[in-house]
Write a structure and sequence with these properties.
Length: about 750
């Protein structure tokens, strides 16, 4: 008979003195009588070496609290959480009455002292239990068992298995190590293009091999560098070599021991393909499948012969996607992401005979426009899908449109990538042409991808033909019924003698006339509504632009008033008629001296104010020539500034020299120069007033520019409003004439 289940917290027997509950202290260890050790038989304990201060002695009788932290992992807060969970398990576990009644209290207390917790922990082996009983060790808490090496469980992330490369499988280990050592010392390599590994790169690699080098390095650039495994596959396919080592973004390709024989065989293969078809020779990937890395180029006949011999590779989804893309067109071998390889849209025909935009019809009660939630869902749905096409031209996309229509019969979305490294590609023009040819909805367009949704009103080829055929049959049947009705009416008129007036009430002709008139009126009403809405929008925008122009005009007037107030406190000096005359030789000498000077006066956005004049006089205190640097660009402004400096300082203008980003004004102080008593003139603006003037001038110039742009937009709006008003009047006049007629 199995023993009764132990409780999580069994009540301990009542001792003479009250004891704290077990969840506040460690497990209760029953006291046992231990005889004193024999000093003759017991070995002396080994002395312990203490490097730091000796810790305080611990009381052997005091137990460690149960809520204390566990060294090596759990904190006090985590331990309290474990205790709360254990208590909840105790409350949910009903106690089983003891079969012995009151007599089993001693056995129950003993069992409780031994196992105070009832948790599903695997018990240790019996040999370990015997050792623990001899040493007096008790496993009372679950985390103590969890710290045991035998019960500890470590969950490690499973590493992805590495697939060996072709070089590692085909070459011996010694030969591969030799080639890698040789590649480490190679310092020159070819550079791949942004468009991928083109024919020029392949020829450069083969040129290095032809010179007698075993290895040729190729530096991979974006976007092919995003997937170096794919770059290795393309290199091995196009060059016929083996990539033996990769360093950063550089692949080192080994030509192989039988390089000359392979090169001759490759030339014969290319010549044979050129004799067959130029399209297949330019694109050898049109008949191949590249889903897995181990597959190579094979022809359809060889694939049919070896179909039973080759094992099936890839999942069902991969094989279906591969089969679908093979049916759409030739593959793009220079694809910079993983397989499946997309279809090269540039190799599809530019013009398809008898191509036209497909017939579309939306189901009843369904709006063709996409809601925001539907658009978001479609974009999320398109993200994990493989890329279907790669496009590099902007126009002549009828072949791509036909392939997209064929793809839409199996998929809701067509994902087109834009080729990288091709000049004059315009993804906006591509999307516009594809939308016009297919009639789909562009849900995403950027410089990398164009994603087109087939639309809610899309009908596959067979369904569209059936709908068109059924509508034509219904129309023919209605025409036959109308013709039979007219014949019957004529026969009755001849027999009975009815009036010759024909009534079209309830006939097919009445339905056609009503449908035509209703459609015409609906079209006219919709056009009139659009014109009225456009007129209202133009009037509102015109009123808004006029109000903005009036506000700009008021601000310009206010700025003019501020500038006039600043100019009133500025009284420039008059030009002195008695000036010193300098010869050409003196001017040439002073010009050279001024150009060689490193010290200069910098003229900033404040222009000429009293601080600039004071600094020029400080320069003239020690030197005869001063060089003033200005950042002004217009010749009129530079000339005005130089003349103003000459008048305000009383010096002589030597030259105006043009530098790369500035101009230099060279001034000579004169032979009879005398330093003024007050170096800062009082007739010019102060530093603060000059800055305020500069800001107001700049502000007024920008406001004048925007006012001119507002006037241009107002004139354009008035012209459009006149055209719309004239179209509305013409439409009303035509409608009145049709009603009177």
């Amino acid at each position: 008979m199995a023993p009764p289940p132990l409780h999580l917290f069994s009540p301990s027997p009542r001792p003479p003195s009250p004891t704290p509950p077990p969840w506040l202290h460690g497990p209760h260890v029953p006291s046992t009588s231990v005889s004193p050790p024999d000093p003759a038989t017991e070995a002396p304990p080994a002395p312990k070496q203490h490097r730091g201060p000796r810790p305080a002695p611990r009381n052997p009788g005091s137990a460690k609290p149960l809520t204390a932290g566990v060294p090596g992992g759990r904190t006090r807060r985590a331990v309290l959480g474990i205790i709360r969970k254990v208590r909840s398990l105790e409350l949910s576990d009903p106690r089983t009455p003891s079969p012995n009644g009151g007599g089993g209290s001693s056995s129950s207390s003993t069992a409780t002292a031994r196992v105070p917790f009832h948790l599903p922990i695997h018990p240790p082996p019996p040999e370990r239990e015997e050792e623990e009983e001899k040493k007096g060790i008790r496993r009372a808490v679950p985390w103590a068992a969890a710290r045991d090496e035998e019960t500890k469980v470590v969950l490690r992330r499973e590493k992805k298995t590495r697939v060996p490369t072709r070089a590692e499988t085909e070459l011996e280990a010694g030969e591969l190590e030799r080639l890698r050592r040789a590649a480490r010392g190679k310092e020159r390599w070819a550079r791949a293009k942004k468009a991928g590994i083109t024919d020029e790169v392949v020829e450069e690699v083969r040129g290095q091999w032809a010179k007698g080098q075993e290895l040729a390095g190729v530096r991979i650039v974006e976007p092919l560098r995003r997937c170096m495994d794919r770059a290795r596959e393309i290199l091995e396919i196009k060059t016929g070599g083996l990539v033996v080592w990769t360093r950063g973004g550089i692949h080192f390709v080994y030509r192989g021991s039988s390089y000359l024989e392979n090169a001759k065989r490759h030339r014969d293969f290319v010549n044979y393909n050129e004799e067959l078809s130029p399209v297949t020779s330019n694109n050898p990937t049109s008949q191949g499948k590249y889903w897995s890395k181990d597959e190579t180029l094979t022809n359809d006949n060889d694939e049919a012969d070896d179909k039973d011999d080759k094992p099936i590779k890839g999942t069902l989804y991969e094989r279906e996607v591969n089969r679908l893309l093979d049916s759409l067109g030739p593959r793009f071998i220079d694809w910079w992401w993983n397989t499946p390889l997309p279809v090269d849209a540039d190799l599809l025909p530019e013009v398809v005979p008898d191509f036209k935009t497909p017939f579309r019809q939306c189901p009843p009660g369904v709006r063709p426009a996409l809601a925001d939630e539907e658009l978001t869902y479609l974009r999320k749905h398109a993200r994990p899908l493989p890329t279907h096409f790669v496009l590099g031209r902007n126009t002549k996309l009828q072949g791509l449109a036909a392939a997209i229509l064929k793809l839409w019969e199996k998929s809701l979305i067509a994902k087109v990538a834009v080729k990288v490294g091709i000049q004059n590609t315009n993804h906006e023009q591509m999307a516009r042409n594809l939308k016009r040819l297919t009639g789909g909805t562009v849900i995403l367009r950027n410089k990398d991808y164009i994603i087109i949704y087939r639309g809610k009103d899309f009908l596959p080829g067979g369904v569209a033909e059936s709908v068109i055929e059924r509508e034509s049959q219904v129309h023919d049947q209605q025409a036959k019924e109308e013709e039979a009705r007219l014949k019957m009416a004529d026969s009755l008129q001849m027999i009975v003698g009815l009036s010759s007036e024909r009534s079209y009430v309830g006939t097919f002709r009445e339905y056609q006339d009503f449908h035509d008139s209703h459609a015409r009126r609906t079209t006219e009403n919709n056009f009139r509504i659009q014109l009225e809405a456009k007129k209202h929008r133009l009037e509102k925008e015109l009123k808004d632009q006029e109000w903005r122009l009036s506000m700009l005009t008021k601000k310009i007037e206010r700025s003019n008033q501020v500038l006039a107030k600043l100019h009133s406190s500025w009284s420039p000096s008059k030009k002195d008629g008695d000036r010193e005359l300098l010869t050409e030789e003196e001017r040439r000498i002073f010009r050279k001296i001024g150009l060689k000077m490193d010290e200069h006066v910098l003229l900033g956005r404040r222009g000429v104010f009293e601080g600039v004049i004071e600094e020029i006089h400080q320069h003239w205190k020690h030197k005869e020539v001063v060089k003033v640097i200005t950042k002004q660009n217009q010749a009129s402004q530079i000339t005005y500034t130089s003349m103003m400096l000459e008048v305000e300082t009383g010096g002589t203008l030597i030259a105006i020299e043009r530098f790369t980003t500035s101009h230099a004004i060279i001034l000579y102080r004169g032979k009879n120069y005398r330093r003024p008593t007050k170096s800062a003139p009082s007739n010019l603006l102060t530093k603060r007033e000059a800055l305020q003037r500069s800001i107001e001038v700049q502000r007024r110039g920008s406001m004048k520019y925007f006012a001119q742009e507002r006037k241009k937009s107002i004139d354009e709006l008035k012209r459009e409003l006149r055209n719309v008003t004239w179209e509305i009047r013409k439409l009303n006049h035509d409608t009145e004439q049709s009603w009177t007629a």
